[in-house]
């Protein structure tokens, strides 16, 4: 019921910056958390950063001090500002939304994923 559209991935040199965007559309009662995850071939999909609707952010240790997650509630959009990029940041980055929907008389909490956007950091 929530569709996520990501943008901002691409190729950047080590030390550079990229800004990822994820816009949510669809039907929901409330968005609880939005976040970014990343995955490389043969690896698990790992948390990068999350943000709640009130602006509380969390980060993986590997990106603390380099990445900043932010959101625009009016636009239902979450951003990931990635600075000081390193080659090991190369991955497919996925946007995730944790939200609550009404199914008849039942409120259910669920998640959806974006399609992923590739970030490649060259050395």
Helicity range of the residues?
under 10%
- Give the overall shape, derived from the CA principal axes: elongated
Give the uncertain stretches in residue-range form. none
Mean pLDDT: 96
**What's the total helix number?**
0
Largest sheet: 7 strands, mixed
Query: How far apart are the first and last residues' alpha carbons, in Å?
Result: 40 Å
Coarse structural class: mainly beta
Rg, rounded, reads 15 Å
| Strand tally | 11
SSE order, as H and E? Answer: EEEEEEEEEEE
Strand content: over 45%
Molecular structure report:
Strands 2, 4, 5, 6, 9, 10 and 11 form a 7-stranded mixed β-sheet that branches. Strands 1-3-8-7 form a 4-stranded antiparallel β-sheet, with no helix packed on it. 0% of the residues lie in helices and 63% in strands. With 123 residues, it is an all-beta fold. Strand 7 and strand 8 form a beta hairpin. The model has no long low-confidence stretch (mean pLDDT 96). The chain has no helices and 11 strands.
């Amino acid at each position: 019921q929530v569709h996520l559209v990501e943008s901002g991935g691409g190729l950047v040199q080590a030390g550079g910056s990229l800004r990822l965007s994820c816009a949510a559309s669809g039907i929901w009662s409330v968005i609880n958390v939005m976040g970014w995850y990343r995955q490389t071939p043969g690896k698990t999909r790992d948390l990068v950063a999350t943000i709640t609707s009130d602006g509380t952010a969390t980060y993986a240790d590997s990106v603390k001090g380099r990445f900043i997650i932010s959101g625009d509630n009016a636009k239902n959009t979450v951003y990931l500002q990635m600075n000081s990029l390193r080659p090991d940041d190369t991955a497919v980055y996925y946007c995730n939304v944790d939200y609550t929907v009404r199914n008849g008389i039942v409120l259910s909490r669920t998640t959806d994923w974006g399609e992923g956007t590739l970030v490649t950091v060259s050395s």
